[in-house]
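Postdoc handover notes: sequence design on the structure in folder B. Input tokens:
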């Protein structure tokens, strides 16, 4: 622009107007470029979330959450998701710091959200999901929520949460592990031996302080799909077995807790 003025192609009385036009054009180009970059990153985030949905749907379609025993290692679906995210973050490493952090939070937050819904969505969500699959739907939420889970399945899920959090911390992204706070809260609450007492109306304040993400609606939905153990299995778990360190409810205890929670929900 200065060269055009120097050779006389822009009249002297139009210099200010010409430079204003040049500045506005440049700002418009910068804004359009930023919008294109933002759209590109949004597309990258969406592709990554879709891939996560595919992995979860494939790995958990026939997954047995009634485990009957605890695991020393994370479940296979957990290891697959972590490996995918690790490779994705490594391949997209050249992104700027803000976009890189956004990608990490997008992926980890999506994994956590899907698992929370699988664990705590109720029977109506199960029916809607099955209806969607019968109608040919293949969206990310087509995987129905867990229909049955036992205390061992919950214990193994809590082991998966520990692994997800350890992976999040290994990335060096501050506060990334907090994406799994709600999932950890739900799993740990269902394994807490004090849960029956915490669910009593008079202990609501204590329950909220200890498990801030826990709601009565979600606990009710989880209890509805909780597979209680027999008395014999419970006695065996209390005789030096490592399963004695977490809550294992009998069938009648599950029914009692459902009544306690339901009364509070209806009041």
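Designed sequence:
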């Amino acid at each position: 622009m200065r060269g055009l003025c120097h050779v006389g192609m822009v009249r002297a009385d139009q210099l200010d107007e010409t430079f204003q036009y040049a500045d506005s054009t440049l700002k418009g180009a910068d804004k359009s470029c930023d919008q294109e970059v933002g759209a590109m990153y949004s597309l990258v985030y969406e592709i990554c979330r879709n891939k996560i949905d595919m992995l979860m749907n494939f790995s958990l379609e026939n997954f047995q959450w009634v485990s009957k025993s605890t695991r020393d290692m994370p479940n296979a679906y957990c290891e697959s998701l972590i490996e995918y995210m690790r490779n994705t973050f490594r391949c997209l490493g050249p992104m700027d710091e803000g976009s890189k952090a956004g990608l990490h939070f997008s992926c980890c937050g999506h994994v956590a959200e899907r698992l929370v819904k699988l664990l705590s969505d109720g029977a109506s969500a199960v029916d809607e999901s099955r209806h969607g699959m019968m109608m040919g739907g293949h969206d990310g939420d087509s995987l129905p929520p867990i229909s049955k889970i036992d205390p061992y399945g919950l214990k193994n899920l809590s082991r998966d949460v520990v692994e997800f959090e350890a992976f999040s911390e290994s990335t060096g992204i501050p506060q990334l592990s907090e994406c799994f706070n709600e999932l950890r809260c739900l799993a740990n609450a269902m394994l807490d031996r004090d849960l029956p007492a915490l669910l009593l109306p008079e202990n609501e304040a204590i329950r909220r302080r200890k498990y801030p993400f826990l709601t009565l609606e979600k606990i009710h939905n989880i209890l509805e799909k909780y597979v209680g153990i027999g008395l014999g299995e419970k006695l065996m778990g209390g005789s030096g077995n490592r399963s004695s360190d977490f809550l294992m409810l009998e069938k009648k205890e599950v029914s009692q807790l459902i009544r306690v929670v339901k009364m509070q929900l209806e009041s």
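Context for whoever picks this up: The first helix runs from residue 2 to 6. Don't rerun without checking with the PI first.
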